[in-house]
Amino acid sequence: MNQTMELLLNRKSVRAYEEKEISTEVKDTILAATMRAPTAGNMMLYSIIEIKDQDAKDQLVKTCDNQPFIAKAPLVLLFLADYQRWYDYFHISGVEQHCEQKKITMRKPQEGDLFLACCDALIAAQTAVIAAESLGIGSCYIGDIMENYEAHKAMFDLPKYVFPITLVCFGYPTKQQQKRELTQRFDEKYVIFEDRYNRFGMEVFEEMYRKRHAQMFGEKKEVKGARNVGQMMYQRKFDADFAHEMNRSVQAMLQAWVNGKP
Q: Is the CA virtual torsion 260, 167, 83, 241 positive or negative?
């Protein structure tokens, strides 16, 4: 096994960091690798904000579902799906007049453009994560940045066609984090299909979730009102307060992006 495969197969989220700064040289190396990430049409439909201000980090702890380790991370990068830069350039380069000459309407960014920009930003984020991992630096994704759209828009002065798709915390992992066991993943047969999508019935789901059920429930028949993994994950994740806020926030962002509402 080569070093790259070993790194990929052993990577895990890190939420506790040593009190050790990430040097400018190391940070620049991570960002240089990030800038080489695959991107749609070489348009680089993303931007990155390094969050240095401690007050901003402290605020993100609250707006990102109360996660204290955000404030302690030596390096915090906000990855933005960004079509504003290109849209501004379209205007500056005379695209509107060009469209008028061709008797067509200049279009605005739409849902597909947003999804493409989200892909670009997430690919860049994962490239940064793997680059950091190769340098002994752990990381953790914060999807909760999609909540509280209005607050984050104001915090980072985000224009209409920019959306915070993920926040990533970086730092040197503590010894405890280094020794922590890898989180179990599903077996490949439940995720990787051939030629077409497979839907499962009760028998397959019971086999698929058997290990997780044992981890969550042990010998108990019920935990917090839930009797199986499906019920537990529904109430803990899918129907949780943060999930409702995330959906509200994304809906507000979509209205601004597609309908031109501020």
A: negative
